[in-house]
Amino acid sequence: MPKITRRQFIKYVGGTAAALGLTELQLFKLTEALANPNAPMVVWLYYGTCGGCSISTTNMIENPAVPWIFSYPSTGIDPIPATTTVEDVVLDVIDLRYQEMIQSASGDLAIQQTGAGPKFDGLKSFFPAGGNAAQPFVVVVEGVLPDDEYQTIGRDAAAGYADLGGRQVIQQLVTSPGCAAFIAAGTCSSFGGWPGALNQTTYAQTNVTPLQNYVNALDPSKLVINVPSCPVQPEVLLLTVAGAIAYLGFGNPGWGPGPNALLQGLDGFNRPLPYYADVLHRGPAGGAYNGAFGGDIDGCPHYDQYSNGIFATKPGDDGCLITLGCKGLSTKTPCNAYKWNYKQTWCVKANHPCYGCTEKGAPDKTSPFVKVI
User: Are 171 and 165 within 8 A, CB to CB?
Assistant: First the structure.
């Protein structure tokens, strides 16, 4: 099976970022950050999640029958083998060191400093007294944070097999000298999502906490980046990890916070720009994506129908879905730029109204998902 090289992945990321309108300097920062052998390690944690964000990320590159969407000749990017596996990217490119779904170790073996398997490290190695604590690392969190009464990462043999709670882990990582940033992968981790439904002001119904709320209560200065959608969009997540690495500037003196922080900055909900700069409801050449690849890659497939007054009256109708409750007029999202299921489709293209999953307050504030006329 062909292996993806760091150079190929850098060119892929560069092509993706160029389509989003990043400057030459910003592209240089992205590619140099990923090429840097001293770039931060990545720790991926699971909390209140269905696992869909991890599945979405692994689906990014594992179908040999579907070409890479950003490998067209017009981009100038060399095609990457379609048989490239997710293992090649997460182990050889972004230096993923802890991820419960794909590592072999579990339980106490995964928690301790050593023994998580080849290329993986034990979770406690990233705690303040751990062997990786002084090395830069970024923490990706999938899912909302439940109360420790309802979630434990495992039992810690070094502490008499006491439960190691999920929030305890965040407390340890926040104070670890190498912890550079947290990235909330998906809507649940970013804003509460489904586990936080029914009351997303106090979250009293389920006693859960979005990542940013919890981390910034511990350390207001700690960088938390939200990458919402249900599930997370894999290209946007990996570009955000790359952007965070470039922003943090490890191994590159002179980089760091500044006017190009995170390449294009964060919006008011700590979402990275330009991925969340534009609403879904736009024509094929509109928005930050610049119509770089044409067609419906960056436009709503029902935009012309809306403009011509053609509206659906029931599910399955061929017409604009605004009348059925589509939230595309107010939802800022990259869904239609990247799609899902091996780049084949996304909600509105499948003729279902957008329910605004990338916005703070979903699903409460965006219900009902489909309006009966």
Answer: no
